[in-house]
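User: Hi! I'm working on a homework problem where we have to compare a predicted structure to a textbook description. Could you give me the structure for the chain below?
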Amino acid sequence: MAWTRDQMAERAAKELQDGFYVNLGIGIPTLVSNYIPEGVSVQLQSENGMLGMGPFPYEGEEDADLINAGKQTVTALPTTSFFSSADSFAIIRGGHIDLSILGAMQVAQNGDLANWMIPGKVVKGMGGAMDLVAGVKRVVVVMEHTAKGRPKLLKACTLPLTGTEVVDLVITDLGVFEIDQDGMTLVELAPGVSVADIEQNTEAEYRVSPALTAA
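Assistant: Happy to help. Predicted structure tokens:
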């Protein structure tokens, strides 16, 4: 009744456009690189100083010096560029990244994002999420719809915010939501998932696309 992690990543890959510069967050977003549509050329950027990352290496071919921001081993391409982390963040803060695909702990109906810490828990590092949501042209969140049975799409986030009114699209294992100045709209359902299923697992207020109600 719900999309798998790979299916969520495949759906997120549909948001890629030819020529885009893209940043992929830790977790499910890293899987998006496996589903780049045929004929679409994108440059994957990592906060730790790579532009033009290749696919994940085959087992036994890993190079410990080639890692993404999540410390996963990656590969380089003939067109890959390497630079300092400061330059990498200058690219982000300068508005040169077209799309960022991130994970989240919570998303509010107005586009607020919480994805960097849970109070009382050890924080390994803040990462680049705050810079990404402030400097990137479009932000897509890919996450599970609930956590331990509790909704993650809320009227207002209860965890510390990463950014306010920054999320443009949310892809969960149950469906897809667009967020704009008028609020949140359910625009797509995972196969076998009903509008009622969404309602039961969502605290946020949202509209349902007429295309779904007509179906």
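For your comparison, note the following. Helices lie at 5-13, 85-93, 129-135, 195-200, 210-214. The longest strand covers residues 76-82. Good luck with the assignment!
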